[in-house]
Amino acid sequence: MRRRRLILFTSVAAVAVAAGAVTAATGAADLALGQVGGAEPEPTGSALPKATATVTRGDLVDTETVDGTLGYGDEWQLNNGASGTVTWTRPDGATVERGETLYKVNGDPVTLMYGSMPMYRPLAEGVDNGNDVEQLERNLKALGYGDDLTVDEEFTPVTADAVEDWQDDRGLPETGRVDPSQVIFASGAVRIADTQISEGAPARPGAPALTVTGTERKVDVDLDTDDQDLARKGAKVSVELPDGETVDGKIVEVGSVATAEDSGESGGSSDEGSSSEESTIEVTVALDEPKKAKAFDQAPVSVDMESEHRKDVLSVPVEALLGLREGGYGVQLVRGQNVRIVPVEVGLFAEGRVEVSGQGLAEGDAVGVPPS
After folding, report:
1. How far apart are CA 291 and CA 233, in angstroms?
2. If you average pLDDT over every residue of the chain, what do you get?
3. How far is the C-alpha of 233 from the C-alpha of 240, rounded, in Å?
4. Which of 34-38, 127-131, 299-303, 358-362 has the lowest mean pLDDT?
5. What phi and psi values does residue 290 have, to the nearest 5 degrees?
6. Are 49 and 339 in contact (CB under 8 A)?
7. Cβ atoms 33, 340 nearer than 8 A
8. Which domains, from first to last, does the chain contain?
């Protein structure tokens, strides 16, 4: 759901209040309004505003607030490759890194290694060269085995020696041969979301063993396709956590396929049980400081996404705007004891300020505002 920040609505109200203030202004202010675009009026103390604000130059950013879910990103399954009886499992929520044990079958560890290719065949001396051999060697090297090992697609006697050293440390038979009962490959460290095997149960090769996620905290947003202009990969966002704390982040992934979701709302002219569908795209946000979100999982959060961005523009507080009799807006420019109304073109409203441009208006100028 997309929600425009409250400041954008209050901006219009502030302009209306300011316009009313002009209508009820003193005679000195009326004199100034009558001279918009003309000669500067004589200095008069009664025309000085009771409060002023500064014209500033910088970036002005407008945001839209959407709903998201804080979690660990997409889930996927790791399938078992061992036969026997499950003798040990990790608790859900545990994190497993390269070289560590995912679970045990017949007392032997099933080890996590990193790679994109599943282990589909036993690897030993004499196998055909392949990317899976290189993947295994890269892991052995990263774990400190095989000082003389060359990482390539060939399973050599040096590779076998490195495997035997690794098997010795893992308490496995030192065969120099690795098969799917010993190793499961994943793209990186994993967090166990759900365990499909249990201690004492039979381990069946090919059956799902674990449902896992990545270990980095992420926010998933199902963004209405009507709002997809908000989703730009690499764009910065702000995430409000359930405890009210805010953490910065950035968009790391934007889905390219729209998904239809049932809104659950019945159409007025359709059957009673019918419902409308809304199309969404998946947007993933990574947090700059994920530790701040450590206490939450699958929690609803609010995400502020940038909708418009004006760079290096002049801006004033929204309440500085005056509604001019001849139409449009102006600001009450104060320089020393001199006061005059300067017509301005308005641009983006955001952050309680409004982009303005007008002849004679400069950074650092003082403009009149209602007293607080």
Report:
1. 23
2. 84
3. 20
4. 34-38
5. -60, -25
6. yes
7. no
8. 2-63+309-369 (2.40.420.20), 65-72+220-307 (2.40.30.170), 76-213 (1.10.101.10)
